[in-house]
Design brief:
The protein is of the alpha/beta class. The chain contains twelve helices and 15 strands. It is elongated and about 75 Å long. The chain starts with 19 loop residues before the first strand and ends with a helix. Bound molecules: iron/sulfur cluster.
């Protein structure tokens, strides 16, 4: 939120959370909301896992989680951590030894629920391994795997039970004077998840990791996540997000960024504003946007581009974008630069031309940002 905002209806007041570090990435406080994903390769297949981590990082992931189900995976983790451009979270679940091994292997964070790993000695061992190796912890409550006593108390998974579970795990870490943790309360049900996060946001100042778990495939999972996470983020809740999709981790990162971009919470790459097209279009808007999305994937500079089929909305949208193209008659359209009409361009050469204009603008913006630093 900017105090001098001239568009107050765009302001999001973020909940004040404590800041922790996941490797070199700050999470919580006034840190940018971090985007996470998780690999789905066998962790023991080091080459494949590293390739997936790198692809996710290239797409913008700030943090990547890797499953560590057995000792062989703990060994592989060490190599993965060394090659990874981003901090790695080790997904442990139940076995305390894996937690210790992962901390020793250089994981930046352990995803482990201290209440699920056995007696006090085991918990103490994992916590001291985390402390000794500068590892944070993520408590991950899931509606599908709530503790028996809470299911008995509440009768079924519900927000109250999820929050109570989270607070029980928090208490265990606090009893060990360990405060470098974040927490999630995920459910596949959007209502349950959102309600649980809202309650949890009131009950703790720990940074919150948002996610709608088992959200589904690319299309349905994106929509569920956009509704669930979008509403929470709009309320100012959430310090890091993972969009869970039955799809490539790169897609999860892209969707995560698009959700944050839609709310003005993060900016990365080209924000394309395009019309749905209709009979008035002066060129094939859909094919052009598809081609531009691919051709502009390498641009990381936050900027905007409007691709509008005709003059009904083209000039108005172009006013607010860095580069714009509006379809016209006779096989050509108008190029706009910094909101101003610039020059005409034939439809046949417009894709290459727009890519060139965007690259030029990105270089200009990068140079300006460097001077400002
Ligand atoms: S901007 Fe023009 S081409 Fe695009 S949907 Fe509107 S009227 Fe149709």
């Amino acid at each position: 939120m900017s105090l001098n905002s001239i568009r107050p209806w765009r302001d999001i007041y973020r909940r004040k959370s404590r800041q922790i570090m996941v490797g070199n990435v700050p999470v919580g406080g006034d840190a940018p909301i971090a985007v996470q994903t998780m690999t789905n390769t066998l962790t023991t297949d080091v080459a494949a896992t590293i390739a997936q981590v790198q692809a996710a990082a290239e797409a913008g992931a700030d943090i990547v989680r890797v499953s560590v189900p057995d000792q062989a995976s703990s060994k592989a983790l060490k190599e993965i951590v060394m090659e990874s451009p981003v901090p790695i979270v080790a997904d442990i679940h139940f076995h305390y030894k894996r937690g210790i091994e992962a901390a020793e292997a250089g994981a930046a964070c352990l995803r482990i629920n201290p209440g699920n790993i056995g007696d006090k000695t085991r918990v103490a061992e994992v916590v001291s391994a985390a402390r000794d190796h500068g590892c944070s912890i993520r408590i991950g409550v899931n509606a599908g795997s709530l503790e028996k006593h809470l299911l008995e108390k509440y009768g079924e998974p519900c927000p109250d039970a999820m929050v109570e579970s989270g607070l029980e795990h928090i208490r265990i870490l606090q009893d060990h004077d360990f405060h470098e943790f974040k927490i999630s309360v995920k459910a596949s049900d959007v209502f349950m998840s959102a309600a649980a996060y809202q309650q949890l946001a009131e009950a703790t100042d720990a940074p919150l990791h948002l996610g709608i778990t088992e959200a589904g495939g690319l299309m349905s999972g994106t929509i569920k996540s956009a509704i669930g996470l979008g509403n929470l983020l709009w309320m100012g809740i959430g310090d890091t997000i993972r969009v869970s999709l039955s799809a490539d981790p790169v897609e999860e990162v892209k969707v995560g960024f698009e959700i944050l971009k839609s709310l003005g919470l993060r900016h990365r790459g080209v924000n394309i504003i395009s019309c749905p097209s209709c009979a008035r279009q002066g060129f094939d808007v859909i094919k052009t946007v598809e081609a531009l999305e691919k051709r502009l994937e390498h641009i990381k500079t936050p900027m905007s581009l409007s691709i509008i089929g005709c003059v009904v909305n083209g000039p108005g949208e172009a006013l607010m974008t860095d580069v714009g193209f509006t379809g016209g008659g006779a096989g050509s359209g108008m190029v706009y630069l910094a909101g101003k009409q610039s020059h005409k361009m034939g439809n046949d050469a417009m894709i290459d031309h727009i890519v060139e204009q965007v690259e030029k603008k990105a270089a200009e913006l990068d140079a300006m940002a460097e001077t400002a630093e």
